[in-house]
């Protein structure tokens, strides 16, 4: 009945009723909820919705959830019995189909846009926070390293064959490809080789006797003459091979540093190149950590394994781990035993690297010591240490290393914060200076732009304000100063007028007497 009513909105609404709907507050909140559901974690928003609207009687309530992981999380944390299969899938399909009609104010177009945006954000976040994203660099590096080895060998053989027409004796003296290409580029025409170039050859060969042997062989060589154009082409090709060889060395250093960051224990145990090949063959460090020791032992020898199973022959004892030094050092009868033991330790190291928070090579060094002790036990019979004791020592050392790394990170963080604070202060000071300069410029421009009429109006306004407020101290001082100035500026009285005044005073005094 549910399947028939899913497509018909009338029938579906008679079965399903919307009780509560809680929209996401933002796109970030929606992405966090989607990530939590994909990981099988009960998000706080979902918990709040369920606790608010579900009935208090948990035993009688059955909750239908389409995802089994989130259903298990709800059942474990909230105590409601959850159902994930059967009718629940059809009901959720109907809710998705008629969701825009169930929720008021939501159209099908806006719902599809929101779904598309969330889908893009979720995919972007998954690509960004990919667990295997660091492993990809190691996988690409080791693949490129193997390809470079093949290419350098092929090109070096081509240089040997090409330059061998002119100087065939050089092949026996300089057997290494890189050295041969450098000598071919340095010597050029063997007839022009003299004792002046002996020091340069010694630097390349790192042996005075070999350099002298090359000089002697060039004088009595059976090679054919070669034109200058051919020599230029040989030198150019040799230069390319030399540059490829130097790039290979840089790539190996890069791989070594990357392995020490991603899988320090595995690289300390079995070496950077073999460890990188194991990760590359497994697909990622996580996949390698999931493999049992028996799979790691024959990893890389799948063809031999299936051929042995098909023909009912002996199965291979080792795969990629054969390139480690331990199996080569073991005796013929102990190769299978040491490869099994080494595969066991490689599995432990890969799991430690994959799931530890602070990467450290302490466990790898301890596991390597155990393999060395096991080799010595096979050869001499000396009993190795117990695994429990070794791991206790490793845990103590690893905790010390982790504490030291945390201290360094905290120091770096403090320095970064101080630097940011100084930068912000400098920016704030510069902004304040800019604002002050701009204010001064605007006031200056305003004063310059003022017309004489405006200036007169301003003066009148100031005078009116002074009259309204009354004379203050400054005004009294100004009046006193102005009166003094008037006295000084007044003309002096003539001497005759002074005499008349004195006479008048004398007469007045005589009358009084």
TrEMBL record:
Which compartments does it reside in?
A: Nucleus, Nucleolus
Gene Ontology molecular function, alphabetical: snoRNA binding
**Region entry Disordered: which residue ranges?**
426-513
Q: Where is the composition biased (Acidic residues)?
A: 433-450
One Gene Ontology term of the biological-process aspect is: ribosome biogenesis
* Superkingdom field: Eukaryota
Offer a single GO CC term for the protein: box C/D methylation guide snoRNP complex
| Record Gene3D superfamilies | 1.10.287.4070, Nop domain
- Which InterPro entries would you find in this protein's record? Nop56/Nop58, NOP58/56_N, Nop_C, Nop_dom, Nop_dom_sf, NOSIC
Q: What interactions and quaternary structure are annotated?
A: Part of a large pre-ribosomal ribonucleoprotein (RNP) complex, that consists of at least 62 ribosomal proteins, 45 nonribosomal proteins and both pre-rRNA and mature rRNA species. Within this complex directly interacts with TCOF1 in an RNA-independent manner. Core component of box C/D small nucleolar ribonucleoprotein (snoRNP) particles; the core proteins SNU13, NOP56, NOP58 and FBL or FBLL1 assemble stepwise onto the snoRNA. Interacts with NOP1 and NOP58. Interacts with NUFIP1, RUVBL1 and RUVBL2; RUVBL1:RUVBL2 seem to bridge the association of NOP56 with NUFIP1.
Sorted alphabetically, which PANTHER family does this protein's record hold?
A: NUCLEOLAR PROTEIN 5 NUCLEOLAR PROTEIN NOP5 NOP58 (PTHR10894), NUCLEOLAR PROTEIN 56 (PTHR10894:SF0)
| Similarity field | Belongs to the NOP5/NOP56 family.
- The name on file for this protein is Nucleolar protein 56
Identify the species of origin. Answer: Sphenodon punctatus
